[in-house]
Amino acid sequence: MTDMVANLVPSPYLEFAGIGKEFPGVRALDRVSFAVDEGEVRALIGENGAGKSTLLKILSGVYRPTVGEVRIDGVPLPGGGTAGALAAGVAVIYQELQLVPELTVAENLFLGHLPARAGVVKRRELREKALQHLAILGEAIDPDCRVSRLSIGQRQMVEIAKALTRGAKVIAFDEPTSSLSEREVRKLFEIIGQLKRQGCVILYVSHRMEEIFAVCDSVTVFRDGRHVETFPTLEGVTHDRLVQRMVGRDIADVYGYRPHPVGEPLLEVESLTGPGLRAPVSFTLGAGEILGFFGLVGAGRTELLKLLFGATRATGGTIRLAGQECRIRSPRDAIRQGIAFCPEDRKDEGIVPVLSVQENLNLTARLGPGHSFLIDLTWERENAQEQVARLAVKTPSLGQLIRNLSGGNQQKVILARWLCQDLRVVLLDEPTRGIDVGAKSEIYSIIHDLAAKGYGVVVVSSDLPEVLGIADRIAVMSGGRLAGFVDRAEATEEALLKLALPTA
User: Fold this and answer.
1) Distance between CA 485 and CA 197 in Å, rounded?
2) pLDDT(178) > 50
3) What is the C-alpha to C-alpha distance for residues 49 and 355, in angstroms, rounded to an integer?
4) Among 89, 254, 470, 502, which residue carries the largest CB count within 10 Å?
5) In angstroms, rounded to a whole number, what is the distance separating the alpha carbons of residues 503 and 372?
């Protein structure tokens, strides 16, 4: 009789049974077990390096577990790597996008299963199918456009559409909204709701707590490669409770704002023009000031930072550092002037994935004064050891490839490469995108330390609470124009959004 009752209880559609994964010198996962039902949206949360991404790579067939197995509808996930996982109905949309930039949108959507006859791609059918899937997302993207010409947000939506083309039953999203506009986020949530109603299993990895409470049914918490706790419902669960379970300690104020004096103007920008700006931009940055730049996707914030750093050539305007006019035609010019830049896109613009932590950390130091064309490996090793310890970078060794580090630790290495330089101005573009709350707190502390030393710090962020929490003053951009400034004392979400939203 007991066996008959047990047979009436449906088994979970997706099960992780004692999953363990070890790399040389690192235990990434330690016998993780939990299950997810059909039609359930399960959040996976934890600090960077907690094991979430490793688990997703095991699910997608990129890695094989050292011990344990994944079961889908009671059947062990077949071998065959990513092809086996795809055949089993698994799709994983990674934070670091897996698109081929030089192929078209349509070709990326159907890569591996292009409609063809006798080896010749049926272009009309390919375009029609691509349009159908893009329409589901509400995206007006040309299927014939090369992916390299799309914005990061558009590429993210293409990645999502790519998963939908395969009719997957188990879909995992790894920080899916990190580069999306508010409109795109709302559309994504609608799609997730639709997939839930269709009985799909959704895994949702995010460090944005408000999203978890908005879209997820349940939460599984990871810490140090272990399954800490699963909350089968979010009823009665608080933000602080989840953070405490994630980090193993209470974080009273993640932003850690410190009131501090702002000195004389350090950076003065007057009537700057260039690609991405629709009107001249002028502002000043004081010594020891943290100036936040807020705006919606496409507002021109990233373009402005690239103009200041010389990554894009300005067409007009004046830049003065400590009262002295300077000409910045390239990043090398900016670095020599003491201007540092941490880009939004870590993968493509921030790191060299095939190089080690030590090599990545010392890239800019080789341009500094006192360094010849010969590389001083002893100095670089000592510098890397010092900076890794200073910023608490979690890496098994300095020789570890940086691509194997979590996003938060990659960001720390990018920051660390500038700390041995003679800095004056630090430009940070979305410095905590895709980073957990514990690592965010550490990065905010670094930002405050830079300001306390008299550096001028510019922080671009799409996260309203973040820019309100760390900045002394906030500049708001809208449609390629500087819409206005708001002092910290008067800054509210309503005030910033009013400036950020374009007027008719």
Assistant:
1) 44
2) yes
3) 19
4) 470
5) 53
Residue 380 placed within a domain: yes
The CA–CA distances, whole Å, from 93 to 173, 196, 475 equal 5, 16, 33
**108 shares a domain with 200:** yes
The model's pLDDT over 20-30, given as tens digits with 9 standing for 90+, comes to 998 876 788 99
Q: Which helix (H) or strand (E) holds 283?
A: strand 281-286
Spatial neighbors of 258 by CB under 8 A, at least 6 apart, are 448, 452
Bridge partners, 477 (sequence order): 482
- pTM score of the predicted model: 0.63
Residue 368 confidence (pLDDT) = 53
| Domain membership flag for residue 135 | yes
Domain that holds residue 12: 2-247
> Residue 324 is which amino acid?
Q
317-338 pLDDT, tens digit per residue, is 999 999 999 999 999 999 989 9
CATH of the domain at 206: 3.40.50.300
* 168 in the same domain as 56: yes
Please tell me whether residues 77 and 207 are part of one structural domain: yes
Other C-beta atoms lying within 10 Å of the C-beta of residue 373: 5
AA letter at 137: L
> Which pLDDT score is estimated for 250?
57
CB count, 10 Å around CB of 479? 17
To 5 degrees, how large is the angle CA 210–CA 215–CA 221? 70
Q: Are residues 312 and 369 in the same domain?
A: no
253 belongs to a structural domain:
no
Q: Say how many residues make up the chain.
A: 504
Q: Let me know whether 301 and 383 are in one domain.
A: no
